[in-house]
Each structure stands twice: as structure tokens, then as C-alpha cells.
Amino acid sequence: MTVHTYDHDDTLREITTPGGVLRYHEAGAGPPLLLLHGSGPGVTGWRNFRGNLGFFAEHFRCLVLEFPGYGVSDDFGGHPVIDAQTALVQFTEVLGLERAHIIGNSMGGGVGINFAINHPDRVGKLVTIGGIGTNLFSPGPSEGIRLLQEFTEDPTRQRLVDWLQSMVYDPALVTEELIEERWALATDPATLAAARRLYGKAAYAAMMDMMRKADFPMPWAVMHKVTAPTLLTWGRDDRVSPLDMALIPMRTIPNAEFHVFPNCGHWVMIEAKAAFEQTVLGFLTRPES
Fold first, then answer.
1. I want to staple 144 with a disulfide (CB 3.0 to 4.6 A). Which of 44, 63, 159, 166 is the partner?
2. Is residue 164 part of a domain?
3. For residue 77, what is the domain's CATH number?
4. Given its phi and psi angles, is residue 21 left (phi above 0), alpha (psi -120 to 50 degrees) or beta?
5. Model's pTM, two decimal places?
6. How far is CA 17 from the centre of its chain?
């Protein structure tokens, strides 16, 4: 089967929400499928999922949301994770989406879990790609997060390359084209300022300290509240969110399945593209007993 290739500009849409303008890519028809990107230098929803859009658009109305603060949608001005959670709620409300499946990459998976807990009747099935849970055996911050902090503090081209190579199992995926594409957006002053609110060393340390002292449970401690059927996907060789992070979500999300892809880093949807797509499609379209 020939998979249709979609164009960036042809699929780009925008809506106005109470927080600001949100941009997104739309393709395909059928049940709504939200695709939520992760964080990191030069990331966008389009760059995370452009390779998968043609496949999933054969079966779903795909909506690739661009979160605030990453250089495409408006910056809401707050902490990027909180703003992403707010943006998702506003996005679904403005578009009138009563119910949708969700695929969330890394941070996007955490945003999807938060949405599934707080709006359980609005989520069909949930797919996460790494990035959730908490370290049980591996040290933290992980190698990938430390390299991300180094770049955010003092952006250089070599630090970007080092971080990109930590994202994948096969370093050949870090091409000159990818480096240049990421560098241009990652060093944009407004985008860099937003990244520092999340990954600057002082901001990160303050967030960790706040979480240690908080009177509310950590995100990984409330995953038992997810009622949606959930597929956890992970790269076996993930150096950003090591595999042991998956153990708590796998055990505590009541209806969770867990699929590990070999010879694969953090970008499962890119590095294990065909296997990921077939696995996720089978999960999303399988009738529930």
C-alpha cells in the first residue's frame, strides 16, 4: 500500500483559544487521533510525527498539536508542561472534540495521561512513547536530560549534536539536515527562553525541590487513576528515559500493555517507525472485550 505524503503548509491550521493562538496539522478522516509532541531543542509536533502522519491518516482524523512555547503556537508564558496541559484542554474544547485517541511522545505522553485522568470520558485509547514514570534503578537526571540541560544553559552546535545523539540508538539518524533544522528553532530567543523555564539548571532544580516538598502526589503516583486502555511503548536503549521508568506505569495503570522495541532510543516513532505504526494501529483498532 502506498502511503500518502502530506505537506507541512497544506496541513497547517490555527485556532484562537483563551490562552493564545494554537497551531496544528490536520490530515485524514475518521475517529479523532491527537498526536502530542515531546520537549527539547527545536522540537515541534510536525517534526515528531511527520513521518507517521501518512500512515495514521489512512485510519484517523489526525490532529498534531503544537504546544505553546516551542516556536510555532503562541507562548502562553508559564511553565511549558503546565501550559501544554492547559493548551490541550482548550484545543479540544474549541474544536468540539468530545472523544479522541491520544498518542503522546515523552512529555506529550505525560500530558496525555493528565488529560486522561481529568477527562476520562473524553479519551478513547492512550498511547505513550517513553518519558513517563520515574527512575527506579537508573540515576537521574538521565544522560539525555543532562545533555539537554547543558544545551539549554549554553547553546552550542556541538551540544545540540551531543543531545541529538543521545536520543537515538543509531547515530546515523542525526543528519546534517536534522542538526540544522533543530539548531535554527532551538536558538530562537523566544523559544530558548521558554526552554529555560523547563530545562535551565536553576529552574530544573527548583522544580525538583518543589516536588520533594509538595503536599500533593507525584505524577507517577496517580497513574492508577487512568481508566483508558493504555499502550506504553519504549525503546530498549532509551538514554533519555531509561527503561526502568516504565515499571510503575506498567504496574499501576489498570489496563496497560507494554511494548519494548529493540535497537531503539527515545524516538520510537522515528527509529522503529514501521513496527511502532503496526503495533499502535493494532491496539487502537482492536475491539475491546
1. 166
2. no
3. 3.40.50.1820
4. beta
5. 0.95
6. 21
Cβ count near 8 (within 10 Å): 11
CA separation for the pair 270, 212 (Å, rounded): 34
264 falls within a domain = yes
Catalytic residue among 25, 37, 101, 266: 266
Residue 266 a catalytic site member: yes
Indicate whether 2 pLDDT > 90: no
pLDDT tens figures, 169-181 = 999 999 999 999 9
The three-state secondary structure class of 46 is helix
Domain count, the chain: 1
d(CA 175, CA 271): 13
Here the cell at position 1 is 500500500
Share of the chain above pLDDT 70, in %: 99
SS (H, E, C) 169-202: CCHHHCCHHHHHHHHHHHCCHHHHHHHHHHHCHH
Can you give the residue range of the structural domain that contains 81? 8-141+217-285
Letter for the amino acid at 208? M
Residues with Cβ within 8 Å of 149's Cβ and at least 6 positions away in sequence, in order, are 141, 199, 200, 201, 204
CB crowding 22-55: b at 16 or more within 10 Å, else e = bbbbbbbeeebbbbbbbbbbbbbbbbbbbebbbb
